[in-house]
Amino acid sequence: MRLGVPLPELAVPAWRLPRRATALVLAIAALSATGCPSAYQRTYDRDLAALQQQGQQQQAQQAALHAEASKYAAVIYFPTGSAVVDQDGLRQIAWFVDKMQPYPQANFLVQGFADSTGSEANNQQLSETRAQAVAAAMAAQGIAQSRMDVRGFGTASAAATNATVQGRRDNRRVEVTVR
After folding, report:
1. pLDDT tens digit string along 164-175?
2. Which of these, 123, 134, 130, lies nearest to 156 by C-alpha position?
3. β-strands 73-77, 108-112 pairing
4. What are phi and psi of 105, to 5 degrees?
5. DSSP category for residue 9
6. d(CA 18, CA 120)
7. Structural domain boundaries in the chain
8. Which end of the chain is least crowded, N or C, by CB within 10 Å?
């Protein structure tokens, strides 16, 4: 009795009430949890679709940037038997590095070549040294070495015939392209 008002008789003994209340709370929680996976699944699916769309947009943007950067290349020429980058070569490298500033994700293939003057072993080494010299000049202008794949090809892949002076000059080169 409380303030003169009689309490209704409980059909359940008081000592069983907490257990039943706990069971009721668990039953309500189970019922509400049954409906949640679909709400969670819809939210997950919506977020996943948005992330996939964002990923596709980023891939398309990267592909467009790669296509734009791939329009540029540099060719540096060398005197017979030399791997020293001259002033013309440094200007060509500076121009290329400047053009690559908007493309910080671009990676480069630095390929060295030689003419047929001298032995094949010497030309292979010379082409590798030329490619390394150009890569070092690019690194000095801010291109990270990790962004460059540096290779020498000796007399393979001649750009011109080795039978003429001009052809041999065209073959003593390093080509820098976007990979």
Report:
1. 999 999 999 999
2. 123
3. unpaired
4. -90, -10
5. P
6. 93
7. 15-66, 71-178
8. N
Mean pLDDT of 79-87: 96
Q: Is the pTM of this model over 0.85?
A: no
CB-based contact 137:93 (threshold 8 Å): yes
How would residue 69 be classed by pLDDT, with cut points 50, 70 and 90? Answer: confident
Question: Picking from 2-16, 21-35, 43-57, which range would have the lowest pLDDT averaged per residue?
Answer: 2-16
CA R_g for the chain:
36
Q: Which of 179, 83, 178, 171 is nearest to 134 (CA)?
A: 83
Q: List, in order, residues 6 or more apart from 118 with CB less than 8 Å away.
A: 81, 126
- Do 112 and 93 meet the contact criterion of CB atoms below 8 Å apart? no
- Is the pLDDT score of 1 beyond 50? no
Place of tokens 């003593």: 172
> Which helix (DSSP H) or strand (DSSP E) does residue 32 occupy?
helix 17-69
Q: What are the beta bridge partners of residue 150?
A: 110
Determine the distance from the C-alpha atom of residue 24 to the mean position of all C-alpha atoms in its chain, rounded to a whole number: 55
Are the C-beta atoms of 83 and 133 separated by less than 8 Å?
Answer: yes
Question: Is domain 71-178 given the CATH code 3.30.1330.60 in the classification?
Answer: yes
Residue with tokens 């467009």: 64
